[in-house]
Amino acid sequence: MNRTAHDPPAPFMAQPVRLRVPHTLALLFFIMSLAWLATWILPQGRFDTVLNERGRPVVVPGTYHPVAERVALMPWVLFTVVPRALADAQGIIFFLLIVGGAISVLRGTGALDAGMHRILRAVGGRPGWFVAGATLLFAAVSATLGCSTEYIPLTTLLVTLCAGMRLDALTACGVLVGGYCVGYGAALMNPYTVIVAQEVSGLQPTSGLGYRLLWFFPFVAVGIHHVWRHARQSLSLPAPRQSTEPVSGSMNAAQAAPLLTCRHGVILLLVAMVLVSMVWGIVARGWYLVELSALWLGLAVVCGLVGGLGVNETARRFAQGAGDLAAVALMVGFARSIALLLEEGQVLHTIVYGLARPLEGWPPVVGALGMLVVQTLINLFIPSGSGQAYATMPIMAPLADVLGLERQVAVLAYQFGDGFSNILIPTNIVLMAILGMAGVPYERWVRFAAPLLLKLTVVAAAALVVAVWSGYR
User: Fold this and answer.
1) Euclidean distance between CA atoms 149 and 329, whole angstroms
2) Contacts for 288 with CB less than 8 Å, ≥ 6 apart
3) I need a labelling partner for 260 at 20 to 30 A (CA). Which of 120, 128, 238, 411 fits?
4) pLDDT tens figures, 28-42
């Protein structure tokens, strides 16, 4: 007999349990609470420090010693430390807000979308060129400008273009997500990850660019090969009956795509000039966050006017883009609070000492690979690149000093662990949004992306080994 709506549920039928991932801010506050508790439980001690060539303190290996007087942090410090941490990280927070506003203005002009649409249309109809060119495009934009959420609206276009070439939606997601995650992992001057991590670690922003550029193309090649291997399998399948409809849809999408005008070309040229100026200013003029923020602010103003947005629309777009990063700014503040609690409670060096003890006697390469594993796991819980940098680099940077590693290697391990794992972790909002728009089940994506993450991790490990052996600084 069938059950009715009024029948009580069967007692033996267990309801499915859904795993709910806490909000990143809630998770960071929980970690803050653990950090405060650690100041009461762990021994308090510190290393001797010396100033490096940039005037930043670095720890001296073998000098750890207990402190003479124990510090007691009261519970209410959990709330007073947040505004102090926000003030302490104000330079990078304002930099992130200004970059977010500038990117929003650039998108408002249509230049970024028109440029990417133009390239995608140019390689449309040629599956091999499409996979290679689009993956390289998204990787390059993410590695330099830090774009990620900006790609979500492109999902429908890529799925339509792929359908017109008899490629499935998984290929479109592979090109889009794979390119963006490779760009974040092999970041060249990503303002949300590399520059933040280097600032926290006391390194010059964008320093070590040559070595990262050297490995950027092998990482992109791995991504292209993996996606194209799946695309070839998609092409080998029989064409569906309605194969003419996607082609028509592709044509419609192409026709509806924004045209690349001369005005757009000028804006894209200005963006390229700003990126080059960043590197030149930092290397030749000693620019830092104030000058870099001013550069991006100027780019937003000029591009808004050149792009025809007008004064009011440029200001509205800028405020909207900065507002979109308000949550990220709070995450940076909460993450910085963790380090402040550990520093003021005098247990930060104790944790570094405890992590270094098991690695004593091992080659420095082992420590570098261990950092890669740790950063990859942490990204599951702190998917914000900036938040993860502020949460982990205060520990990883001095740990690198103790293990005889260059701090640049620790930053490299951070960006590899943070960027590449974005391709798989379900807490990555961009990933889940793109899969949802493309209609690709997450379970199917895991079967596709897990081998790619493994390949990228192997290459990342090789890059770290070479970095250690070559004394990468």
Assistant:
1) 16
2) 205, 282
3) 128
4) 788 889 889 988 998
